[in-house]
């Protein structure tokens, strides 16, 4: 894992050029590890779609656009600037999907799901001073809505993006009074679902995601200012 992380960062920095990644032998010699470890390193990189490994051929770096950006490993290894770009792209994806998921859920949501969502709203209100615990409830609230929409493909897409979603929530939760505002926005979505009003649910989710995106951009600006001051 350590060698795979190191090689990924070198590829991102452009230190491994010409589309060619190190071979098993080269990894073994450079890092002082066995050929077995070198082989497993390449398997990890291949599983993230960073490289192509074929028997009897050289190891080739894949185009960056094709990497598995939903993997928590890759998110951990990428530089902060790229992660910030991915978080913005995540919000674009959510803005496309989640308002329609909310509308779909409103049309068919069960009383049992509404009861769970109501409990989660109460937990959010109680956890506004605990951002880490809050984000878990926040994630589950959105997944409950996704499951209520009863589309297995969309459910898996949303679930696969959970690591980026957690990273995004950690940023937006830093905003002053951010969690209090988030609870109010989730409550508005919940009320539209209780009313079984697809149009209102769609609008409430769209407003929530728009506010999140504005907060994300604002926090990015504040981080840039703090970094500039440190320099």
Helix/strand layout:
Blueprint: H1 2-12, H2 24-31, H3 35-47, E1 51-52, E2 60-61, H4 72-77, H5 80-108, H6 111-126, H7 131-148, H8 152-160, H9 162-172, H10 178-194, H11 198-230
Helix pairs in contact: 2-3, 5-7, 5-10, 5-11, 6-7, 6-10, 7-9, 10-11
Global Rg: 21 Å
CATH superfamily of the largest domain: GntR ligand-binding domain-like
How many helical elements? Answer: 11
CATH names the topology of the largest domain as Four Helix Bundle (Hemerythrin (Met), subunit A)
What summary fits the major beta sheet?
Answer: 2 strands, antiparallel
Strand residue content: under 5%
- Tell me roughly what share of residues is in helical segments: over 70%
Overall 3D shape: elongated
How many structural domains are formed by the residues? 2
Instruction: Based on the coordinates given, report the CATH architecture of the largest domain.
Output: Up-down Bundle
Query: Briefly, what CATH class of the largest domain?
Result: Mainly Alpha
Q: Which residues sit in consecutive blocks of at least 5 with pLDDT less than 50?
A: none
Class from secondary-structure proportions: mainly alpha
| Number of E-state strands | 2
Provide the succession of SSEs.
Answer: HHHEEHHHHHHHH
Q: Tell me the span between the first and last alpha carbons.
A: 32 Å
Within the largest sheet, what's the order of strands? 1-2
Task: Please tell me the overall pLDDT.
Answer: 91
Annotation keywords:
Arc Repressor Mutant, subunit A; Four Helix Bundle (Hemerythrin (Met), subunit A); 2 domains; mainly alpha; single chain; about 0% strand
């Amino acid at each position: 894992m350590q060698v795979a992380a190191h090689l990924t960062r070198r590829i991102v920095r452009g230190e491994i050029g010409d589309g060619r990644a190190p071979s098993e032998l080269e990894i073994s010699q450079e890092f002082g590890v066995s050929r077995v470890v070198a082989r497993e390193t390449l398997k990890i990189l291949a599983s993230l779609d960073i490289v192509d490994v074929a028997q009897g051929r050289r190891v080739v770096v894949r185009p960056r656009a094709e990497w598995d950006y939903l993997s928590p490993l890759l998110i951990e290894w990428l530089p902060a600037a790229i992660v910030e770009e991915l978080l913005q792209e995540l919000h674009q994806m959510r803005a496309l999907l989640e308002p329609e998921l909310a509308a779909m859920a409103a049309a068919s949501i069960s009383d049992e799901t509404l009861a769970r969502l109501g409990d989660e709203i109460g937990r959010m209100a109680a956890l506004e001073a605990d951002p880490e615990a809050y984000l878990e409830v926040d994630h589950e609230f959105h997944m409950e809505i996704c499951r209520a929409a009863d589309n297995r493909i969309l459910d898996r897409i949303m679930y696969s993006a959970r690591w980026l979603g957690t990273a995004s929530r950690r940023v937006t939760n830093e905003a002053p009074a951010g969690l209090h505002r988030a609870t109010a926005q989730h409550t508005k979505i919940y009320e539209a679902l209780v009313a079984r009003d697809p149009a209102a649910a769609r609008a409430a989710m769209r407003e929530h995601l728009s506010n999140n995106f504005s907060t994300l951009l604002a926090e990015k600006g504040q981080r840039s200012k703090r970094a500039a001051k440190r320099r």
